[in-house]
Amino acid sequence: MTTPLQLLETSEGVSFYHQGDEEARWIFDEIFTQRCYDTVKLPEKPVIIDAGANIGLYTLFAKRNYPEAKVLAFEPARESVSIFNQNISLHKLSGVEVHECALGSKNETKMLTFFPNTPTNSTIGSDGGNEWLELIADKVSKEVADKMRENARQTPVPVRRLSEFLRDRDDIKKVDLLKIDIEGGELDVIEGLDADHLLSVKNIVMELWSPDGQLEVTKKALEAKGYTVTTTLVPWKSGQAEKMKMYMVTAQRV
Q: Using CA of residue 183, residue 185, residue 188, residue 192, what is the dihedral sign?
């Protein structure tokens, strides 16, 4: 059963379509109120890659703060892409293109586990999000984890290297920000960049779950590629980020 589309009108004056009020407000707070991806200063007309675009809230944030930004958004879940497009139309935004695919280190097809109750947790990870759900059950509640699992389904989706979308683009000389929120496989996105394209990426900001040392591995990998890296806990309330081991990683090429 498809959840009806709803329009949320926030007190900050930002309206957007969504299919789940609680998750929508959570993501809005992360992006617009806590400004968790707003960790680097960008030029007036930045080129931004939105990897894991979901329903488009980060793209809306980017265009609100940088109206002349060019945004290339990537989202493998068809349901989320549909809402993304409606949100772009709602705000009559130009300079935005969305690609219905995941990003990775090579071109292939993977299974997307889609969680209709919490689409932002959908993943192409090999375990289908089971480890994350087990942590939710342990640290939050079994009821929440069970609600997330409800009606979950798998579907094949294309995975593409990011360089495919940057090659032969006369309008893109550099990428000012690569934003990544993809629920696993973050370094695969970066491995999908040819050497010249990687050098053109000035800043990377990602949300990273680190249950088994992924934070240190990611930090070292980015430093080896020439970035200066800083990390903080995701600005969630009530100490949940520390319990869930969720981090924001900012990498700058200086």
A: negative
Name the domain count of the chain: 1
Q: How far apart are CA 145 and CA 69, in angstroms?
A: 37
- Mapped onto helix, strand or coil, the DSSP state of residue 109 is strand
Q: What sections of the chain are H helices per DSSP? A: 21-28, 57-65, 78-90, 130-139, 142-149, 163-166, 186-191, 195-200, 214-224, 240-244
User: Which helix (H) or strand (E) covers residue 9, if one does?
Assistant: strand 6-9
Query: Is this model's pTM higher than 0.90 or not?
Result: yes
CATH assignment of the domain containing 147:
3.40.50
- Condensed to tens digits (0 to 9), the pLDDT of residues 75-111 reads 999 999 999 999 999 999 999 999 999 999 999 999 9
